[in-house]
UniProtKB/TrEMBL annotation:
This is Adenylate kinase. It is an enzyme of class 2 (transferase). It comes from Streptococcus criceti HS-6. Monomer. Residues 30-59 are annotated as: NMP.
Length: 212
């Protein structure tokens, strides 16, 4: 079973990815893990990626694509299948991924797309507050402090509603062409993410089990 999981920040993609890997026993391939492993193993591409990261530069697509190909070529992927998480991030990367899979004699079985209205994601992501004295993190809606006094808490700039909206707009603009590309291939399965975590996973599980 070879899967790709997609979803906007705050949609619960990471939580669902962990549950999928645990239940179905497939290899979890996340961008961060791939880069860390390639650097730790001092592969040629890993060292090349590190040279860009050390300078604070973005790693070029050709290096990222090469690291993805390296990872997808490993034995556990052939044996168990994979769940790609955080890649592709652009339409060009999605097209390259098709070529990589073909060269490795693999195919993508489905794209799991966790959907939530962006207005609800703003509430989720912009509710984080931090205690000025203790540094403890709370959420205004989902985990409010018992003794909440506005002057005792602050928000990071990244967590303020305006910043969250901008971040979501960028992610939507980036993700739409990728989703459209996979819809043309009839690979996309939309999952309603605005429900309890276990209910989301129930829908995800049913979708994946139905692919077999």
């Amino acid at each position: 079973m070879n899967l790709l999981i997609m979803g906007l920040p705050g949609a619960g993609k990471g939580t669902q990815a962990a549950k999928i890997v645990e239940k179905f026993g497939i290899a979890h391939i996340s961008t961060g893990d791939m880069f860390r492993a390639a650097i730790a193993n001092q592969t040629e591409l890993g060292l090349l990626a590190k040279s860009y990261m050390d300078k604070g530069d973005l790693v070029p697509d050709e290096v990222t694509n090469g690291i993805v190909k390296e990872r997808l070529g490993q034995a556990d992927v052939k044996e168990k299948g994979f769940l790609l998480d955080g890649y592709p991030r652009t339409l060009e990367q999605a097209q390259v991924l098709d070529t990589i899979l073909k060269e490795l004699d693999l195919k993508l079985d489905a794209v799991i797309n966790i959907e939530i209205e962006s207005s609800k994601l703003v509430e989720r992501l912009s509710g984080r507050i931090i205690n000025r004295k203790t540094g403890e993190t709370y959420h205004k809606v989902f985990n409010p402090p018992a003794d909440y006094k506005e002057e005792d808490y602050y928000q990071r700039e990244d967590d303020k509603p305006e910043a969250v909206k901008r971040r979501l707009e960028v992610n939507i603009a980036q993700g739409q062409p990728i989703i459209a590309y996979y819809r043309q291939q009839n690979l996309v399965h939309d999952i309603q993410g605005d429900q309890e975590i276990d209910n989301v996973f129930k829908d995800v599980s049913q979708t994946i089990s139905g692919l077999k």
